[in-house]
Each structure stands twice: as structure tokens, then as C-alpha cells.
Amino acid sequence: MLAMFFWAFVVGGAICVIGQIMLDVFKLTPGHMLSILVVAGSILSGFGIYEKLVDFAGAGATVPITNFGYTLTAGAIQEVDAHGIIGVLTGMFEVTSSGISAAIVFGFLGALLFKPKG
């Protein structure tokens, strides 16, 4: 059990270090850095590498933003197998809709509870 926590920390930390290096060394904007990490997760998912990383590191690979690219690609691949080419679009929305909906709802509730700065 302790090894699982260790590897989740190491892998999640490594992904965050890569993002921080992009910000500090390459002087990328946060938007560029996030886009690169999402695309990297998607590419690794397409080659079947990210799923192995998730199996190995658990939350260390599913919490960082790279998981969003992985989820989009995995959903699209799953739906293409089931429904053909139209599954490319429907799969991405079907798999990620609950996470995006939760982010919107919790963001709204947070804005109601706290004073948002505009």
C-alpha cells in the first residue's frame, strides 16, 4: 500500500515538474503549458502508454491535466469501436461530460458562497 502512494507521488510530481519547467525555463504561458500537457496525454493514450501509467501510478497519473487528454482519447477510441467514425465526437463528450459538469456546478456554488473578484 505504501508503494502505491510513493509511485503516485513520484509520477504526479514528475508531471508537475515538467509543467513547471515549461513555465520557468521555456517561458510558456499557462495556457500553452496546459495545452501541451493535454495533447501529450492524448498522444500517450493513443499509443496505449498512458493507460499503463494509470495502472502503475493510480492518482499520480489521473489527477494532473494530462489525464484530460487521456480521457478524451480513450473515450473517442472506445466509441469509434462501438459506433464507427461518429464515435470520435460523441465519445469525447460522453466520457468527459460528468467532469466538466461537476466543475461548472462546483464553480457556481463556490461563487455563491464566496465573494468572486471580477
How does this model look, in words?
By secondary structure, the protein is mostly helical. It has helices spanning 2-24, 30-46, 49-57, 59-62, 66-83, 87-113. Helix 2 crosses helix 5. It holds the Pfam family SpoVAC_SpoVAEB. InterPro entries: Spore_V_AE, SpoVA. The chain crosses the membrane at residues 6-26, 33-50, 95-114. Keywords: Membrane, Transmembrane, Transmembrane helix.
Helix and strand topology:
Layout: H1 2-24, H2 30-46, H3 49-57, H4 59-62, H5 66-83, H6 87-113
Q: Gap between N and C termini, in Å?
A: 44 Å
What global shape is seen?
Answer: globular
Query: Which percent range fits the helix content?
Result: over 70%
Low-confidence stretches: none
The helix-and-strand class reads mainly alpha
**Biggest sheet character:** none
Name the helix and strand elements from N-terminus to C-terminus, one letter apiece: HHHHHH
Mean pLDDT: 90
The tally of domains stands at 1
Transmembrane segments: 6-26, 33-50, 95-114
Protein name: Stage V sporulation protein AE
Pfam family, one: SpoVAC_SpoVAEB
Organism: Bacillus oleivorans
